Amino acid sequence: MKLLLGNVLIKPTTPETKTTSGIVMSSAQEEQVATGTVVAVGSGSIASTGIAVPIEASPKDTIMYKTRNQIKIQHEGEVHVIVDQRDLVMIV
Known about the structure:
Elements: E1 7-12, H1 27-32, E2 33-41, E3 45-46, E4 52-53, E5 62-66, E6 71-75, E7 78-84, E8 88-91
Antiparallel strand pairs: 1-2, 1-7, 2-5, 3-4, 5-8, 6-7
Protein backbone atom coordinates (compact mmCIF):
# COMPACT_ATOMS: atom_id res chain seq x y z
CA MET A 1 0.00 0.00 0.00
CA LYS A 2 1.33 3.42 -0.96
CA LEU A 3 -0.39 6.47 0.50
CA LEU A 4 -0.54 9.60 -1.60
CA LEU A 5 0.45 13.14 -0.64
CA GLY A 6 -0.42 14.18 2.94
CA ASN A 7 -2.31 11.04 4.00
CA VAL A 8 -1.39 9.02 7.08
CA LEU A 9 -2.52 5.44 7.83
CA ILE A 10 -3.07 4.86 11.55
CA LYS A 11 -3.95 1.80 13.62
CA PRO A 12 -6.15 3.21 16.41
CA THR A 13 -5.48 2.13 19.98
CA THR A 14 -8.02 1.57 22.72
CA PRO A 15 -9.04 4.97 24.13
CA GLU A 16 -7.20 5.95 27.29
CA THR A 17 -8.29 8.59 29.74
CA LYS A 18 -4.66 9.61 30.32
CA THR A 19 -1.77 9.76 27.83
CA THR A 20 1.68 8.38 28.66
CA SER A 21 2.92 11.97 29.01
CA GLY A 22 0.25 12.63 31.68
CA ILE A 23 -2.38 14.54 29.70
CA VAL A 24 -5.87 13.68 31.02
CA MET A 25 -8.58 13.65 28.35
CA SER A 26 -12.27 14.29 29.06
CA SER A 27 -14.96 12.20 27.36
CA ALA A 28 -15.74 15.13 25.02
CA GLN A 29 -12.08 15.22 23.94
CA GLU A 30 -12.11 11.46 23.32
CA GLU A 31 -14.71 12.02 20.61
CA GLN A 32 -12.55 14.69 18.93
CA VAL A 33 -9.03 13.30 19.45
CA ALA A 34 -7.77 9.71 19.37
CA THR A 35 -4.46 7.92 19.80
CA GLY A 36 -2.92 5.40 17.44
CA THR A 37 0.22 4.03 15.83
CA VAL A 38 1.35 5.27 12.44
CA VAL A 39 1.50 2.42 9.92
CA ALA A 40 2.40 4.36 6.76
CA VAL A 41 2.71 7.93 5.52
CA GLY A 42 2.42 9.63 2.14
CA SER A 43 5.05 11.89 0.62
CA GLY A 44 3.63 15.08 2.15
CA SER A 45 1.50 17.87 0.75
CA ILE A 46 2.15 20.92 -1.38
CA ALA A 47 1.42 24.33 0.17
CA SER A 48 -0.42 27.00 -1.81
CA THR A 49 2.97 28.65 -2.32
CA GLY A 50 4.21 25.50 -4.10
CA ILE A 51 6.55 24.46 -1.30
CA ALA A 52 6.58 20.80 -0.22
CA VAL A 53 5.37 20.17 3.35
CA PRO A 54 6.78 16.85 4.64
CA ILE A 55 4.89 14.70 7.15
CA GLU A 56 6.54 14.93 10.57
CA ALA A 57 5.31 11.55 11.82
CA SER A 58 6.98 8.28 10.83
CA PRO A 59 5.80 4.66 10.84
CA LYS A 60 5.70 3.18 14.37
CA ASP A 61 5.23 6.63 16.00
CA THR A 62 2.42 6.83 18.57
CA ILE A 63 0.38 9.92 17.82
CA MET A 64 -2.75 11.83 18.78
CA TYR A 65 -4.95 12.85 15.86
CA LYS A 66 -8.23 14.67 15.21
CA THR A 67 -11.03 12.25 14.33
CA ARG A 68 -13.43 14.62 12.54
CA ASN A 69 -12.27 13.82 8.98
CA GLN A 70 -10.95 10.30 9.38
CA ILE A 71 -11.68 7.58 6.84
CA LYS A 72 -12.12 4.09 8.35
CA ILE A 73 -10.83 1.14 6.32
CA GLN A 74 -10.03 -2.55 6.76
CA HIS A 75 -6.30 -3.22 6.32
CA GLU A 76 -4.81 -6.67 6.90
CA GLY A 77 -8.01 -7.73 8.67
CA GLU A 78 -8.02 -4.87 11.19
CA VAL A 79 -9.68 -1.45 11.38
CA HIS A 80 -7.37 1.41 10.44
CA VAL A 81 -8.01 5.08 9.72
CA ILE A 82 -6.60 7.45 7.14
CA VAL A 83 -6.23 11.11 8.15
CA ASP A 84 -4.67 14.16 6.55
CA GLN A 85 -1.37 15.33 7.99
CA ARG A 86 -3.09 18.55 9.14
CA ASP A 87 -5.14 16.41 11.56
CA LEU A 88 -2.06 15.12 13.40
CA VAL A 89 -1.91 16.77 16.83
CA MET A 90 1.26 15.42 18.46
CA ILE A 91 3.70 12.56 18.70
CA VAL A 92 3.44 11.05 22.21
